[in-house]
Amino acid sequence: MKSPSTKIRKRVRLTVLSVMCAAAVFLSSCGGTPAPTPTGAASTSEPSGSSTPAVGDSLTTSDVPEGGIITFALMHSWTKLNLWDAEDDLAGNMVLDKIWDKLVYANNEDDIVEPRAAKSWDISGDKREWTFHLDERSKFSDGAPVTANDWVFTFQTISDPEVICVMKNYLSVLEGTDGSGAELSENSIGVSAKDDYTLVMKFKLPMFEDIFAYKYNSKYCVLPQHLLKDVPMSTFLTDSFWTKPIGSGPCKIREEVTGSSITLDVIKDYPLGNTNADTVVYKVVEYANYVPSLIAQEIDSEQGYISYDDATSGKTYDSFNIIQAKYPDVATLLFINNANVTDKRVRQAMNLAIDKQTYTDVAVKGFGVPSETYVIPGSKYFNDTLTYERNVDGAKALLADAGWDSNRVLKWATYGTDAGQLLIQQNFAEAGIKVEFVTLDIPSIFVGMING
């Protein structure tokens, strides 16, 4: 039997990127409305990665008043309430993780996999067959029990060729599917129920625990068969169910104001425990209004990061303190679309061209360290033998070898241009790479990346 909590090494799979690690500045409550958790690091850019927030990372806390309301600020709105068809971004993941349950919980802080909908699991010797022992206490928010049959129904439905959704390709690792995640024949996907609370998954290739936990598990949520079994596949994604869906996560939807806010009721008997509060609210707040909203106690926590100007202004606040973290904890990442920049020599040239030390001095006021890896300094996996040195001549040589067209202009999607981005644009120009900024909201950036 697999132990309920298993130590793993976390593997981060990112496309191609250039990294600078920014030092963290945290907020902590010191009066007024209690902040449920430290709210994150100050930075000039979007936080890296999109790991699904934990069930307990921001909800299970003794700091929240009994029966109170927790209000989270988001930089932008979620895209959809259907996790299977929503864009993979931090704001959406924060909301959807409270509605939809997953099989396991990837504990980012301790690098372990812990039980969630599955209380334990067995993995075959060849790592291709996983058996999940489900928590019998799990329920949908309408009170119906969650069984292995619901999980099988979910995978068979999403793999149906008529159901074309954003996360479908995450099923392609399972037996009985093609490269898009569609079933090869009716209900051929390698997911079955041994009994009401034993779920079996069969993978095409060995599936390692860390890869499952951090990449696939966050996309796999269970749907209620009793409510969706009669919905035609052709209209499955547009059914009225998705306006106020029923999930099995720690909260249920009370009210949504599209693009603005969503109010969730806390489910007190959620098997893994829950917050003292009765209500969780996510609301979209402009980045510039984070600190004013915290001062006014209109929000308790925020998704993004306060600016370094706010963090280092020397001001004091009644409702929270600003504390510098011991180690940098945010990687500033420049994502490169491999489909558009196909030659790895060009991507390597980009990395060599960036003046990371000056970026650190300019963009994050020296509160950071240049890095040649996206593993955060202070992590036990950080390799301090990897060193960075800017080499513009080396970048030019790589571009010449790749036959790079110096007249080509790359589009850099951003939700707001800052001094650090302008510096990198200048660095690229010195090596012979032209870049122009395109200002978009964050969901549009993800769509643009997907569409090339």
What is the terminal separation in angstroms?
44 Å
List the helices and strands in order: EEEHEEEEHEEHHEEEHEHEHHEHEHEH
Strand arrangement across the biggest beta sheet: 10-11-12-3-13
Strand content: 15-25%
By DSSP, the count of extended strands is 17
What structural class results from the helix and strand content? alpha+beta
Count up the helices.
11
Radius of gyration: 23 Å
Average pLDDT value? Answer: 80
- Contiguous low-pLDDT stretches (5 residues minimum) are 1-61
Shape: globular
Main beta sheet, described? 5 strands, mixed
Helix percent band = 10-25%
Description:
The protein is α+β, with helices and mostly antiparallel strands and 452 residues long. The chain is 21% helix and 23% strand. The protein is built from 11 helices and 17 strands. A 5-stranded mixed β-sheet has the order 10-11-12-3-13, covered by helices on one side. A hairpin with a 3-residue loop joins strand 10 and strand 11. The chain is globular, with a radius of gyration of 23 Å.
Task: Give me the secondary-structure topology.
Elements lengths: L5 E2 L9 E13 L39 E6 L15 H10 L4 E4 L4 E4 L2 E6 L5 E6 L13 H11 L32 E5 L2 E5 L6 H8 L8 H4 L22 E7 L3 E6 L12 E6 L5 H6 L5 E2 L5 H4 L8 E16 L8 H10 L2 H8 L4 E3 L21 H11 L6 E6 L4 H13 L2 E6 L2 H9 L2
Parallel strand pairs: 3-12, 3-13, 16-17
Antiparallel strand pairs: 1-5, 2-14, 2-15, 4-5, 6-7, 7-9, 8-9, 10-11, 11-12
